[in-house]
């Protein structure tokens, strides 16, 4: 217990704790939406495509997160465009953007002269090195997401459940879909530092699967997902620190273990 | 009295291939129109054009004064097979979604009371907190009917409400619809020609073209005269049902 309290006196750990809180809320809510709407694969595509932006930013020397946002939004629109206008099957167009982004990232990083030390932390995340400005961005994103979902909860729910009916009811379906895809892109990018590009799908799906064991109500799913994400992230953070293993992987492993235990418990109760 | 909806020379196409061509149709107050036709014949497309979900290639759909506005007073029951049954939503929320755009004062509490009353009326009040995926086919159709009715529509559009339901519920459903028809117009799409002809007042055969029959019986002469597409497409089986029903 003392060791844990002592940890909180470190500046890096306080930041990591805040990052865990922000990641849990944003990923909990956005992930619940993604899972409910069955757009997990699209979100995976957006996430991986953002690596292209990180590579470009390294190459041209600007903020990697800015590059990631650019590519995330671009790929989100690109997937839509490929599917609707170019008439490529949706799962194929997702895979194309997914791999194109990764490929561009690798090319740009390769072309960048010198050593790129932070690359691994973008791929696999390192919550222990989150900076103040990243925390501010995460805080703002959380604020936007919480307010947006609190104000428009019913509309978001009805559109997600039955888009056609929502259109006949006069809801601005297209506008909501675009706003939410932008929120998804921002969530993915700003949480890359916590668990990394390759692992971020976990925060968007595992806590939601756990939450789904206990409720079928959309509103509760948003809240429970955030709570389970928080418990898993914090527990994973401690495990990572005390066992001295990478934080992203430790967090995901913990999330899965929590799900597994609760799933088993549920089938016996 | 103007018709609620007047469709003139409507052509709807997917990828330039027309699914509906030169369709004329009027829907008046207290109409109970059954829409029949083969799969892929354009029944659902017709509904989607009326609902504004599919833009027509050409032609016009006029709405009467009481039917115009951003939120048209149309209640819609879509095909349940397109519903994601694993979606985390409760029955009560599904019903409430039928009244989302009503901006009256205390719209929320009014909608809640109305939703309660509708669930009670349809005999599904006991399942209001269940998830949508836990329902049987009949319960699901009832819930979607509640949702369609929540906004006090003047026209009710139902797309195959008889899928996934047992015979007993089907009977109840058609009874309920006949009762509702005293106050609103109904447009009902169905595969089940036999049952449909027993409760509707008029019939539209849709197979790319639309043939309107102003009564609920289609005689052999009519089939021949109107060159009813059903006869051409389905070699006897469906017209058979129609005719058989006619004799009873």
Description:
The complex is a heterodimer of chains A (269) and B (248). Chain A has 269 residues and is mainly α. Chain A has one domain (2-264): ABC transporter involved in vitamin B12 uptake, BtuC, CATH 1.10.3470. Chain A is 83% helix and 0% strand. Chain A has helices at 2-7, 11-37, 40-60, 64-84, 90-111, 119-124, 132-161, 163-168, 173-190, 192-195, 200-212, 218-243, 247-268. The mean pLDDT of chain A is 92. Chain B is built from 9 helices and 9 strands. Chain B starts with a strand and ends with a helix. Chain B has a 6-stranded mixed sheet with strand order 5-6-7-3-8-9, with helices on both faces. Chain B is 35% helix and 23% strand. With 248 residues, chain B is of the alpha/beta class. The chains are: A mainly alpha (269), B alpha/beta (248).
Top CATH class of the largest domain in chain B: Alpha Beta
> What does the overall shape of chain B look like?
globular
Total domain modules of chain B: 2
- Greatest interface: A-B, 24 and 30 residues
Binned strand content of chain A = under 5%
Fourth CATH level, the homologous superfamily of chain A: ABC transporter involved in vitamin B12 uptake, BtuC
Number of strands of chain B: 9
Largest beta sheet: strand ordering of chain B: 5-6-7-3-8-9
Query: Any idea of the CATH topology of the largest domain in chain B?
Result: Rossmann fold
Q: What can be said about the biggest beta sheet of chain A?
A: none
| Terminal Cα span of chain A | 32 Å
Number of distinct beta strands of chain A: 0
User: Which class best fits the helix and strand makeup of chain A?
Assistant: mainly alpha
So, the CATH homologous superfamily of the largest domain in chain B?
A: P-loop containing nucleotide triphosphate hydrolases
Quaternary:
heterodimer
Q: Report the C-alpha radius of gyration of chain A, rounded.
A: 19 Å
CATH class of chain A: Mainly Alpha
Number of domains of chain A: 1
Enumerate how many helices of chain A there are, as a single number. 13
């Amino acid at each position: 217990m003392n060791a844990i309290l002592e940890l909180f006196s470190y500046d890096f750990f306080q930041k990591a704790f805040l990052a865990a809180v922000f990641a849990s809320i944003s990923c909990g809510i956005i992930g619940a939406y993604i899972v409910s709407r069955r757009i997990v694969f699209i979100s995976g595509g957006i996430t991986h495509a953002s690596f292209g932006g990180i590579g470009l930013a390294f190459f041209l020397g600007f903020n990697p997160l800015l590059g990631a946002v650019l590519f995330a939004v671009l790929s989100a629109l690109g997937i839509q465009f490929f599917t609707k206008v170019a008439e490529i099957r949706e799962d194929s167009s997702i895979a194309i953007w997914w791999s194109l982004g990764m490929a561009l990232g690798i090319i740009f990083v390769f072309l960048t002269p010198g050593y790129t030390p932070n690359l691994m932390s973008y791929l696999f995340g390192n919550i222990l090195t989150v900076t103040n400005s990243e925390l501010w961005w995460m805080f703002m994103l959380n604020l936007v997401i919480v307010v947006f979902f609190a104000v428009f909860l019913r509309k978001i729910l009805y559109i997600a459940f039955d888009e056609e009916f929502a259109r006949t009811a006069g809801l601005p379906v297209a506008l909501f879909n675009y706003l939410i895809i932008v929120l998804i892109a921002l969530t993915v990018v700003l949480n890359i530092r916590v668990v990394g590009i390759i692992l971020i799908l976990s925060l968007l799906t595992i806590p939601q699967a756990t939450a789904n064991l206990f409720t079928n109500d959309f509103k509760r799913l948003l809240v429970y997902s955030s709570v389970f994400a928080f418990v898993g992230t914090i527990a994973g953070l401690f495990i990572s620190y005390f066992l001295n293993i990478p934080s992203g992987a430790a967090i995901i492993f913990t999330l899965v273990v929590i799900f597994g235990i609760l799933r088993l418990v549920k089938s016996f109760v | 009295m103007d018709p609620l909806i007047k469709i003139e020379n409507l052509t709807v196409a997917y990828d330039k291939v027309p699914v509906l061509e030169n369709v004329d149709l009027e829907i008046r107050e207290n109409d109970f129109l059954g829409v029949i036709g083969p799969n892929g014949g354009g029944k659902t497309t017709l509904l989607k054009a009326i609902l504004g979900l599919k833009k027509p290639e050409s032609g016009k759909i006029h709405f009467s004064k009481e039917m115009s506005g951003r939120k048209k007073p149309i209640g819609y029951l879509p095909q349940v097979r397109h519903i994601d049954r694993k979606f985390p939503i409760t029955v009560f929320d599904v019903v409430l979604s039928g009244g989302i755009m009503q901006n009256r004062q205390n719209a929320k509490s009014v909608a809640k009371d109305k939703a309660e009353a509708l669930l009670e009326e349809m005999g599904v009040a006991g399942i209001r907190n269940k998830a949508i995926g836990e329902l049987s086919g009949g319960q699901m159709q009832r819930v979607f009917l509640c949702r369609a009715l929540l906004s006090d529509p003047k026209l009710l559009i139902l797309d195959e409400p008889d899928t996934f339901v047992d015979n007993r519920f089907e009977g109840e459903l058609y009874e309920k619809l006949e009762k509702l028809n005293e106050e609103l117009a109904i447009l009902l799409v169905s595969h089940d020609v036999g049952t449909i002809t027993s409760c509707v007042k008029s019939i539209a055969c849709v197979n790319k073209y639309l043939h309107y029959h102003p009564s609920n019986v289609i005689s052999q002469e009519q089939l021949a005269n109107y060159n009813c597409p059903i006869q051409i497409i389905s070699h006897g089986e469906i017209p058979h049902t129609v005719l058989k029903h006619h004799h009873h």
